[in-house]
Amino acid sequence: MARARDDLLVEAFAVVLKQTRTKAGLSQEELAFRADVNRTFVGLLEGGKRQPTLSVIFALARELQVTPEALVLKVRKLAAERLEQS
Known about the structure:
78% helix
């Protein structure tokens, strides 16, 4: 069951990251450049294929002009909604 919750969090982070990036008007490439991460890694995060480290969450949040807490809260809410639906 823990694995399913982990997958749910990864998927929720993917959705939240893409929505937040799009709302900020940034491409994956621009966000990656600004946050000093690889563009492919941003794509993998948004595809739900990788999990971010704490330092990456902070770097992405900074460049998306949101707080890390706001990103995590959105992920938590989305994951909870999806858990209720399943």
